[in-house]
Design a protein that fits this description.
Blueprint: H1 2-112, E1 117-121, E2 124-128, H2 130-144, H3 148-161, H4 168-181, H5 185-198, H6 205-218, H7 222-235, H8 240-251
Antiparallel strand pairs: 1-2
Helix pairs in contact: 2-3, 3-4, 4-5, 5-6, 6-7, 6-8, 7-8
């Protein structure tokens, strides 16, 4: 019986110890769970904070990207505007250069009208003023129209205005022809002889000598005409005028 009590007490002590031990283990578990929950809450708060901060950072980055995109578009628009302005300036510069070239050409053309230039008449090249050439051509045009009186006046005025002109010999020749047509034979002879005296090698010199002979025939100066024709054949034997003179000599009596 005694042993039974001892065993019972021992059993109760063991059960009491085990019960106390179980209570201790539940408290530790609770504390561990609480710590885990606290850690989880802290982690969740941290994650929430980091997520919020990341969201704010993303929003800020998005705003920065939008601002940057806007700046890029603004720069593109400005560059396009500058390109357009550059193209406009290029066109305006080209137009100014074209106008300047036209103006320069116009000035050159106007100056050229007053500058002496080389001309060739009857195989002779010489320098003449534009006004001089224009006046000679105008007188010649009047002669070709058959207005011999006006042509006589025009060539006479020309020779007075330009006594040293390279046009002198041809002007004398055509003046003599106008006077011959007007039957002003004596003046015609004077001008034809002046041509030969001015330039014996001139292309029209043989024709001028032949014209003198024709005027002498018209004046009934047959002796003078024969002498002129003979001089023509001697001076210009290879000329066409010399061939005509030989034929005329055979017919003059």
């Amino acid at each position: 019986m005694k042993n039974f009590r001892i065993a019972l007490v021992a059993t109760v002590c063991v059960l009491a110890f085990n019960a106390h031990a179980g209570l201790f283990e539940d408290d530790e578990a609770r504390r561990a769970i609480l710590e885990l929950r606290q850690r989880l809450d802290v982690s969740q708060q941290r994650m929430a904070e980091e997520s919020r901060k990341a969201t704010e950072d993303n929003a800020q980055l998005r705003r920065s990207l939008l601002d940057l995109s806007g700046q890029i578009e603004a720069l593109r628009a400005e560059m396009a505007q500058m390109r357009g302005q550059g193209e406009q300036m290029t066109r305006e510069l080209s137009e100014v250069q074209r106008r300047q070239k036209d103006l320069s050409q116009g000035v050159d053309d106007r100056l050229r009208k007053f500058e002496p230039s080389k001309v060739t008449v009857d195989g002779r090249e010489f320098v003449a003023d534009p006004a001089e050439t224009q006046e000679f051509d105008a007188a010649l045009a009047v002669l070709r129209k058959g207005d011999f009186a006006s042509a006589q006046a025009a060539f006479g005025n020309f020779l007075k205005r330009y006594p040293q002109s390279g046009y002198k010999a041809p002007a004398l020749f055509w003046l003599g022809n106008a006077q011959y047509a007007l039957r002003n034979y004596r003046d015609a002879i004077t001008n034809f002889r002046a041509l030969v005296a001015t330039d014996t090698e001139h292309l029209r010199a043989p024709e001028a000598v032949l014209a003198v002979a024709n005027c002498q025939v018209e004046l009934k100066d047959i002796k003078g005409a024969r002498k002129t024709l003979e001089d023509l054949v001697k001076a210009y034997p290879q000329s066409e005028a010399a061939s005509v003179a030989k034929d005329r000599l055979s017919k003059l009596k």
